[in-house]
Amino acid sequence: MTENKEEFYSVYSLSILAVYAGVMFASTKLFSTAANSSDYHVAGRNLGLVQGALSIAATWIWAPALFTSAEKAYTFGLTGLLWFLVPNILCLLLFAPFAMRLRATMPDGVTMAGYMTKRYRSIAVGRTYQFQFLSIAVLSTAVQLLAGAKILNALTGLPFWGFTVLLAAIAFTYAHGSGIKASVLTDAIQMVVMLGCCVVLVYLALSNTNGMADLTAGLSGTGQYSAMEIFLAFGLPTAIGLLSAPFGDQCFWQRAFSIKASALGKSFAFGAVAFAIVPLSMGLLGFLAVGSGFQVVDTGMVNVELVAGLLPSWAMVLLMVMLLSGLLSTVDSNLCAVASLVSDWQVTSKLDNADKLRVSKVAMVILLIAGILIANIPGLTVTHLFLIYGTLRATTMLPTVLTLSGKELSAKGICAGVMTSIVVGMPIFMCGTLTGNTTYTTIGCLSALLLSGTVALLTAPRKAVRHG
């Protein structure tokens, strides 16, 4: 990158961050208030269809949706993009009926961990779910900060660590005041911005290449991999990880408790459609990079490199706004998720409303500090974190689904099952991915998903058999 461009991006990056923070803060101050704990954690359980759908879509747009979609389209072609896109959509549709069942079963709930604690009358089960949800929130926050700071550092040359702190501070500034109500409001703004940026960027990319000819030529990707290689190395583990993802993430259970019961199913359906536009658009940029013969240095940043290399300088400003919106929408959702999880602790349940909110805000700060520290670990990549928490989210899916489906499990079986999935499945999966061994990758992702449910079923109470 030339010195003039770097100076241009430095000035505009800091200006964009300042304007972005100001708009989000002003919006939440003017249009969202949280008078009590119910408002702060579940928005009075009264969010409408449009608010709910846009919030679900924005929350689901995380770093991989912005970067992995373009990378896999560039590397694996249409097959790779579909293996990423389709499970991302299906997971929200699959999650919807279980969210509706949870809401009907526990209409006054706040967290899935709280529901499992009450359902099995077991603090141990609740703590197991709390551990998983809190771990997901920390790792997810770290990966968003890592991705955002990496882009800003590459564009401006300014310190990486400084951007991790700055991005965290921006999210906290507008999220801590009103909790989930602030998150949902800013999600809606962020989603509209992202959709608009997608349309303009794809149009500009088509206009600055050979258009549909390059797009069509790029559908096969780099052509270095067979369909079976793509399936084993990327498709299968990605599908399992994504389809189970919402079940292991308090962000989505929190929205299940916050959206009007009558609008819950439609919110997830429309949210899935709105979400799909963003990774699809980034995938189109990946196809155009291949078809146009654009030389890519880092395939994980192919969309950023294409925009910086072929489009006008101001187009990078649009991309930065879009990326910032996508990454921080997930960070602020994580902040609200952690705040709700802490409110469900036994020790906090005895506090008055004001003290509960103070504890929730302290938890937000601790989350951001942990995320910043992890994001600044030398040599750590977005892929590393994605592998860890993507697999971790799958470990509670089957016990959750079985419970909501009416299956009677044992508290000890659930705890043992989830921990078995974590201890056995995750190391095998990570080993296979980091070494490129697709056999280990397949075994690992299946183990993380299946072991928790298998152990829980094997230890489930047996119904007495009547003789007579």
Task: Give a description of the structure.
- The protein has a single domain (3-378), classed as Sodium/glucose cotransporter, CATH 1.20.1730.10.
- Helices cover 79% and strands 0% of the residues.
- Helix 7 (123-156) crosses helix 17 (353-375).
- The chain is mainly alpha-helical.
What's the structural domain tally?
Answer: 1
At the fourth level of CATH, the homologous superfamily is: Sodium/glucose cotransporter
Number of H- or I-type helical stretches = 21
The fraction of residues in strands falls at under 5%
Q: How would you sum up the global shape?
A: globular
Order of helices and strands: HHHHHHHHHHHHHHHHHHHHH
Average pLDDT number: 89
Secondary-structure blueprint:
Layout: H1 3-31, H2 37-42, H3 49-60, H4 63-76, H5 78-105, H6 112-120, H7 123-156, H8 160-175, H9 180-207, H10 212-217, H11 227-244, H12 250-258, H13 264-291, H14 302-310, H15 313-343, H16 346-349, H17 353-375, H18 382-392, H19 397-404, H20 411-435, H21 438-458
